[in-house]
Amino acid sequence: MAILGVRKYGDPVLRRRAERVREVTPEIRATVRDMIDTMYHEVGLGLAAPQVGVALRLMVVDEEKGRGPLALINPEIVEEGGRVVAEEGCLSIPGIFATVARAEWVRVEAQGVEGQPLGLDARGLLARVLQHEMDHLDGVLFIDRLDPIERDRVKRQIRKGGLREDAPRRAFAL
Ligand code: NI
C-alpha cells in the first residue's frame, strides 16, 4: 500500500494525452492498488493515472454506492446522452469548484485489472465521475469546460490566491 502524491494544476503531466495500457502487468496492478489507496486518502470519488504522474489510460472510481472501488483500464465512452449541469471539483485543483455541463448518461467500455473486457452503463454521479476522469486521460481539466467568463474568473482566482490545499470540500473532488 502506498499513498501517491497528487499532481497539481500547472504540472505538465496533467496536460499530456495518456498512452494506452498495452498489457496488464503486475506493475499496472500495483499502480491500480496505489491509486485506490490514494483516492481514499484524498477523499476523492475518482482518480486518473496522470494525476499521480503516470501517463497511462487508467482510472479508479468509487462514487460511494457501496460497490467498492472500480478500476478501468483503457476506458472509452462509446455512447452518451442527455445533459446535466452540476458543481465539480478536482483533486489536482484544490479549492476550486465550478458548475460543469456533462452528458447525463454514458456507456463505457474498458478492461478490468485481470485484462477482462468490462462494460458499464452509468448515470448520475458515476457518469459525471467517469467523464471527468476520462478528460484527465486526454489532458483536459474541468476548468477547460467552463464558459470563457467563468474560466477567466477561476484562472484569476488561482493566480491571486494559489491553490488552497486546506480548502473546505464544497463539492466532490475528482
Ligand atoms: Ni480531477
How would you describe the overall organization of this protein?
The protein has one domain: Alpha-Beta Complex (Peptide Deformylase). It is an alpha+beta fold and 174 residues long. It is globular and about 45 Å long. It has a five-stranded antiparallel beta sheet. 25% of the residues lie in helices and 26% in strands. It contains three helices and seven strands, in the order H-E-E-E-E-E-E-E-H-H. 34% of the residues are buried. The model has no long low-confidence stretch (mean pLDDT 92). Strand 4 (84-89) and strand 5 form a beta hairpin. The structure holds nickel (II) ion (NI). Nickel (II) ion (NI) binds at residues 90-92, 132, 136, 174. Nickel (II) ion (NI) is lined by residues 90-92, 132, 136, 174.
